[in-house]
Amino acid sequence: MTEHRLLPLVDAPAPERRDAARNREALLEAAQALIDHCGLDAVTMDAVAAAAGVGKGTVFRRFDSRAGLMGALLNHNETAWQASVMSGPPPLGPGAEPWERLLAFGRSRLETTLQHADLIRHAGQAGTRSFAAYSFAAMHVRYLLGQLGVTGDLPLLATALMAPLEAPILEQQVRIEGIDVERVFHGWADLAGRIVRR
Amino acid sequence: MTEHRLLPLVDAPAPERRDAARNREALLEAAQALIDHCGLDAVTMDAVAAAAGVGKGTVFRRFDSRAGLMGALLNHNETAWQASVMSGPPPLGPGAEPWERLLAFGRSRLETTLQHADLIRHAGQAGTRSFAAYSFAAMHVRYLLGQLGVTGDLPLLATALMAPLEAPILEQQVRIEGIDVERVFHGWADLAGRIVRR
What we know:
The structure is a homodimer. Chain A is built from eleven helices and no strands. Chain A is mostly helical. The first copy, chain A, has two domains: 54 residues, Orthogonal Bundle (Arc Repressor Mutant, subunit A), CATH 1.10.10; 133 residues. In chain A, helix 5 packs parallel to helix 8. The longest helix of chain A is centred in the N-terminal third of the chain and has 24 residues. The N and C termini of chain A lie far apart (60 Å). At the A-B interface, helix 9, helix 10 and helix 11 of A face helix 9, helix 10 and helix 11 of B. Chains A, B: Pfam families: TetR_N (PF00440).
């Protein structure tokens, strides 16, 4: 402890900053546990405060509003997903053939979007993920299309591949029309094959 | 007039019903004119009542809320679009080759969705059109894909073709990323060509 005070690491956050980060993490974990066990409606600022053992004011100071909390939670999940694309095990992560990675991308995006559909609907007014989240995924799909030798307007083809995986469309297919998730995935893989001209 | 009373046509609405329909039409036209000239924010229940020369209570009785009015206006536009697909001039309407009709569908959907994007955002919470509106368009695309000899899971391929034409995606491309509308259309036509395997 004395040593730590004598030789502060440049990149180490100040103790209060580290506490704040831990605090924030604990609140997000409490909110996620509430969603997993009781559904999204159970996530009130009061309930999250109680579950994390802090005052309601702390939750408001940290996230501003219920929508702010939902947005932070979504970002938290998205960051974990991005890490698994960038450095997780194949085939979602590096090390597999581009076509295998593209299929793994589609399946994983489909599953996580359905899993977080309620959260996405509450966090953004358009029912879609944030532009930053979209941009990362679009960049990854463009990269894979390039690796697969696809020619054409790659940014637009990437958007076309990602559009059917957006929450409002998946929810309509799976929750309203009652289409099996496996069939939705196979339809998406067929679309990908046509775009790649396999 | 006497004749009309003696021989009422079975399908003719009662005079009060006809007045109500005319009234409703006038209110929707007033609302559309307000949007065209002053933007969506100008559409308040007060402004629509004033523009149509009726009391505010009439607007509320007819549409319940501002969101209800937006929904009715969107339906009104959608119905006109559906009529032009079913019985309007080619290539959007019948009489052109299926591939020309598909391209005309894409262009017209792209243009009307961008034109009504604000309305769509205010009328539906998911930022997309109603399920009924979606179903009609999906049925039409499935029909054209069938005519073009496309095999596979046609309902899912139709969804894949329509997904990039949804309002949140088009708005992001055109309004946020600044992509030219013509480029978006050519990207969509390329997608359609790949799906049809032309």
